[in-house]
Specification:
By secondary structure, this protein is of the alpha/beta class. It has helices at 12-24, 57-60, 77-84, 92-100, 119-132, 147-150, 164-168, 194-201, 203-206, 269-284, 289-298, 326-333, 361-366, 378-382, 394-402, 426-435, and strands at residues 5-9, 28-33, 49-52, 65-68, 88-90, 109-114, 137-141, 157-161, 177-180, 211-214, 229-232, 239-243, 249-253, 256-260, 307-312, 315-319, 344-349, 371-374, 389-390, 410-413. The protein contains 16 helices and 20 strands.
């Protein structure tokens, strides 16, 4: 791009990262935000022009280039008008992609990860694998640090989590390997249809040298069959699941077991697939097998997301307090009993926000241990399971289960509710569990 005026639409952490990057490159930057007092406004450089209030197409059309926050849909009339006038509209990831193809950055490898669920776990797990292998790695994008703030000459591997919103405005990524972990209904307030959402996710493959897809979710299959690709899933093919000679369930590659799932601190069958995806991505960019296996054994998960807390007298305690809706709790509990030797005990409750708890019936039937509820909507949860018991708070739930669990059991806090009826937020619940 020639040195020119650039409009940045939308502040916040990502918007400021764009402003700082463009300013350092010598561009004249104007920032637009519809809010009266946008976040991060105090971090703007003094040379930046700030325009607050409704967006107007005639004003935006004055700029040859607009960098739009991923939180803003391109369908906004003012942005559409600018596009129709020939304005180029991109996002922060496109800026990153273009810069990565220049010196002194173009030696680095790039992994891109998207999906409706699990992408933060896989992104973080892969980053830990690279660190274990003493690789200069930078991890961010839709999680943690904005992509533009990751750029540094000494980085040898970038790992980016990308949302569908970011993929809408990205065209130039040349990832060494990319994956769509899964696709389920999400963000349908932003897209014309579920098909439109799924097609947007596919943009990640068209900007990669190699694809990794989920065999158990055909929507993740690359449209271009000729593209080099690997896959992961619950069967024995490629990266999959097998039993070893001792009958242990194992992660495997081409039918050869390499890691027993009982060694994972991550709980749940969905995390078997997350572990397989991370391992496959790691092999694609040359992370050593030894480093990856060490990481798989030690990785306890993201805070508050099926996070391993402790093993107390042979009982594993898991914090999934971020599961503040029924779907998240379903994912955490589905098939969980089959992954451990003992019983699963589950803690639920809080403010259900009008949720239909009957959708938990099937997964709660799998739970052989205690089902303990508390909070505003405890009675509604108890109505879908005749074995559920009510307590006054999380402390009482922990005490009850601690007194009635045995070696080999697993205890999981997965509320299926918001916590605001009793606690400051879901993190506060997780902290209480950790304290025990």
């Amino acid at each position: 791009m020639d040195k020119q005026q650039v409009g940045v639409i939308g502040l916040g952490v990502t918007g400021v990262s764009c402003v700082d990057f463009l300013h350092a490159q010598g561009y004249r930057v104007t920032v637009f935000d519809t809010r009266d007092c946008p976040p991060e406004v105090d971090k703007l450089n003094g040379d930046v022009t700030l325009l607050l209030g409704p967006l107007t197409g005639t004003e935006l059309a004055k700029f040859p280039l607009l960098v739009v926050s991923p939180g803003l849909p391109l369908s906004l009339p003012a942005i559409q008008f600018a596009i129709e006038q020939g304005v180029e509209v991109i996002g922060d990831i496109e800026l990153f992609a273009r810069q990565l193809q220049t010196q002194p950055y173009q030696h680095a490898k790039l992994v891109t990860i998207t999906g409706s669920n699990g992408k933060s776990t896989v992104t973080t797990l892969l980053g830990e694998m690279a660190k274990q292998d003493n690789i200069n790695v930078a991890v961010g994008g839709n999680i943690g640090i904005p992509a533009l703030q990751l750029l540094a000459p000494n980085i040898d591997l970038y790992i980016l989590e990308l949302s569908s919103f970011q993929l809408e405005t990205t065209h130039s990524l040349l990832a060494d390997v990319a994956t769509i972990l899964n696709i389920s209904e999400d963000h349908l307030d932003r897209y014309d249809s579920f098909q439109h959402y799924a097609q947007t996710k596919q943009f990640i493959y068209t900007q990669s040298k190699k694809a990794l897809y989920n065999r158990d979710d055909l929507l993740t299959l690359p449209v271009n069959e000729a593209q080099p690709q690997n896959s992961f899933g619950f069967d024995e093919r490629d990266y999959g699941i097998v039993k070893d000679e001792q009958g242990n369930i194992c992660l495997a590659h081409q039918g050869a077991p390499f890691f027993a799932v009982q060694q994972l601190k991550l709980s749940g069958k969905h995390n078997w697939l997350n572990a397989l995806a991370a391992f496959a991505l790691g092999e694609a960019v040359g992370i050593s097998k030894k480093a990856m296996l060490t990481t798989l054994k030690n990785y306890s998960g993201l805070r508050h997301r099926c996070e391993f807390i402790a093993d107390i007298n042979g009982v594993r305690w898991i914090n999934d307090s971020k599961a503040t809706n029924v779907g998240a709790t379903q994912a955490a509990l589905m098939g969980l009993s089959a992954t451990i030797a003992g019983k699963v005990h589950v803690i639920l409750g809080g403010e259900g926000k009008g949720a239909d708890f009957s959708e938990l019936t099937a997964v709660l039937q799998e739970v052989e241990g205690l089902i303990v509820c508390f909070g505003k909507d405890a009675e509604q949860i108890m109505a879908v399971s005749g074995r559920a018991q009510r307590v006054n708070n999380l402390d009482e739930a922990v005490q009850l289960i601690a007194a009635n669990s045995d070696r080999g059991d697993l205890v999981i806090l997965s509320p299926a509710c918001a916590s605001l009826d009793m606690y400051r937020n879901f993190m506060a619940e997780g902290i209480i569990l950790r304290r025990w």
